[in-house]
């Protein structure tokens, strides 16, 4: 029976966690800090649970360097529903905030007590102006845009870019910003992208220039960071919402983290106002467990929060703070980059055996997607699925696990999440070299 340290696991999520975190949380599940009770057995409203929540927020704000209090504060929310839940929650929140801004403007222009006229004006503006912008760069942003269309109607969705159009019908390249067809930022309720496309191995290289400096009146900047969370430095103030499911870089499935600009929460409209607009804007009211303002007001404890899952995330965040000290998330970024470079350099070096799927300009540091070529053939269009199977089988014999590509695209995917160690990467690189020569 292999031990944890004998296995190198490159699965795309759920993904490996640092062994000390797993060991600590295993103890906590049985008997948390010698209290005689496990963490999943105690109240989510207990002082213990509150401390875990506070510790998680504090560690995250240190790592990403953003304020939890004061004028430019961000709230950190923990919810359930996964990344997919946030596809719905983010568009509903941003559309609600847009509507509330328009309502306030109408009241300012028309005066108090003119409810019917205010409703009429906002209805007209929704019909004539409202858009939500999506940068569709891979399977997950595509799904998010489809969910938005399902909830509020496709006429409000502007796909500002569809990366497949620039890459022969397949994801793998991010079109240049000057080609994006963004809506006027004052009319747009949000601009959304997936920062790291887990299935397609595509990562936004950096924060888009054209979205810098957006203000309170502009469409909200929303990024899904489920699969590259806490893996590189960013300016939180550039974003309105950052979200991510925990089960890759943060912890285990069951909680989702949301970092949201506090000033936006104050714009949450009343449900009865939105109800009166349901003829032009269906399903814009989120279920209460997905309403950010409600969750923030209740310190993520509106309903039962899985504290054990949160505890794992807290331990992960605290261990990053401790390991990288003043470098904060940049320390993790340097390590992630070094590991990814080792793998990509090897794939590029043995280009007669391997073909990296995404374009060099958008290669993900987290999910490294490649195909194995037929022997002796240089045509990049010919992948050899039998050789890919052989690659996976020989990898597994060496305890290199979880390398199969996503079922929708095939090939090989090596996920290089934060808990994948350098020795594991070195073992994978050795396998790549050996297979290129002999496999
Ligand atoms: C980038 C990204 N977004 C969203 C999701 C969906 O997450 P969940 O399964 O937690 O709903 C995933 C899942 O792998 C993902 O990789």
TrEMBL record:
<dbReference type="InterPro" id="IPR022278">
    <property type="entry name" value="Pser_aminoTfrase"/>
</dbReference>
<keyword id="KW-0808">Transferase</keyword>
<dbReference type="InterPro" id="IPR015422">
    <property type="entry name" value="PyrdxlP-dep_Trfase_small"/>
</dbReference>
<keyword id="KW-0718">Serine biosynthesis</keyword>
<dbReference type="GO" id="GO:0004648">
    <property type="term" value="F:O-phospho-L-serine:2-oxoglutarate aminotransferase activity"/>
</dbReference>
<comment type="pathway">
    <text>Amino-acid biosynthesis; L-serine biosynthesis; L-serine from 3-phospho-D-glycerate: step 2/3.</text>
</comment>
<protein>
    <recommendedName>
        <fullName>phosphoserine transaminase</fullName>
        <ecNumber>2.6.1.52</ecNumber>
    </recommendedName>
</protein>
<dbReference type="InterPro" id="IPR000192">
    <property type="entry name" value="Aminotrans_V_dom"/>
</dbReference>
<comment type="similarity">
    <text>Belongs to the class-V pyridoxal-phosphate-dependent aminotransferase family. SerC subfamily.</text>
</comment>
<dbReference type="InterPro" id="IPR015424">
    <property type="entry name" value="PyrdxlP-dep_Trfase"/>
</dbReference>
<dbReference type="Pfam" id="PF00266">
    <property type="entry name" value="Aminotran_5"/>
</dbReference>
<dbReference type="InterPro" id="IPR015421">
    <property type="entry name" value="PyrdxlP-dep_Trfase_major"/>
</dbReference>
<dbReference type="GO" id="GO:0006564">
    <property type="term" value="P:L-serine biosynthetic process"/>
</dbReference>
<dbReference type="InterPro" id="IPR020578">
    <property type="entry name" value="Aminotrans_V_PyrdxlP_BS"/>
</dbReference>
<dbReference type="GO" id="GO:0030170">
    <property type="term" value="F:pyridoxal phosphate binding"/>
</dbReference>
<feature type="domain" description="Aminotransferase class V">
    <location>
        <begin position="121"/>
        <end position="427"/>
    </location>
</feature>
<dbReference type="GO" id="GO:0005737">
    <property type="term" value="C:cytoplasm"/>
</dbReference>
<keyword id="KW-0028">Amino-acid biosynthesis</keyword>
<keyword id="KW-0032">Aminotransferase</keyword>
<keyword id="KW-0663">Pyridoxal phosphate</keyword>
């Amino acid at each position: 029976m292999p031990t944890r340290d004998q296995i190198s696991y490159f699965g795309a999520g759920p993904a490996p966690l640092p062994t000390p975190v797993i060991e600590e949380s295993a103890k906590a599940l049985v008997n948390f800090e010698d209290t005689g009770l496990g963490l999943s057995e105690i109240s989510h409203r207990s002082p213990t649970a509150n401390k875990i929540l506070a510790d998680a927020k504090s560690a995250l704000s240190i790592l990403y360097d953003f304020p939890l209090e004061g004028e430019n504060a961000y709230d950190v929310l923990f919810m359930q529903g996964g990344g997919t839940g946030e596809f719905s929650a983010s568009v509903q929140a941003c559309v609600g905030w847009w509507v509330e801004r328009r309502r306030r403007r109408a009241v300012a222009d028309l005066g108090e007590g003119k409810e019917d006229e205010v409703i009429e004006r906002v209805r007209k503006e929704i019909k004539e102006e409202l858009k939500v912008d999506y940068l569709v760069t891979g399977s997950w942003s595509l799904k998010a845009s489809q969910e938005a269309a399902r909830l509020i109607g496709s006429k409000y969705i502007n796909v500002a870019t569809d990366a497949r159009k620039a890459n022969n019908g397949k994801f793998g390249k991010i079109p240049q910003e000057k080609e994006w067809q963004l809506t006027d930022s004052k009319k747009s309720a949000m601009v959304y992208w997936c920062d790291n496309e887990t299935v397609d191995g595509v990562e936004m290289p950096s924060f888009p220039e054209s979205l810098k400096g957006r203000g309170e009146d502009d469409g909200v900047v929303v990024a899904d960071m489920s699969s590259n969370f806490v893996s590189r430095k960013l300016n939180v103030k550039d974003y309105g919402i950052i979200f991510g499911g925990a089960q890759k870089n943060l912890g285990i499935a069951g909680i989702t983290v949301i970092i949201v600009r506090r000033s936006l929460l104050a714009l949450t409209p009343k449900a009865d106002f939105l109800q009166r607009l349901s003829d032009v804007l269906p399903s814009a009211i989120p279920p209460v467990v997905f309403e950010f303002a409600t969750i923030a007001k209740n310190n993520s404890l509106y309903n039962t929060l899985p504290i054990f899952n949160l505890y794992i995330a807290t331990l992960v965040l605290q261990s990053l703070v401790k390991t990288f000290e003043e470098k904060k998330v940049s320390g993790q970024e340097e390590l992630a980059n070094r590991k990814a470079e080792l793998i990509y350099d090897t794939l590029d070096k043995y280009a007669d055996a391997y073909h990296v799927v995404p374009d060099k300009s958008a290669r993900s540091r987290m999910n490294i997607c490649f195909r194995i070529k037929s022997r002796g053939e240089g045509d990049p269009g010919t992948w050899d699925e039998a050789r890919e199977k052989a690659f996976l089988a020989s990898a597994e014999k060496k305890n290199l696990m979880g390398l199969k590509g996503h079922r929708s695209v095939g090939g090989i995917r090596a996920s290089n999440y934060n808990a994948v160690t350098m020795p594991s990467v070195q073992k994978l690189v050795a396998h790549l070299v050996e297979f290129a020569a002999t496999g």
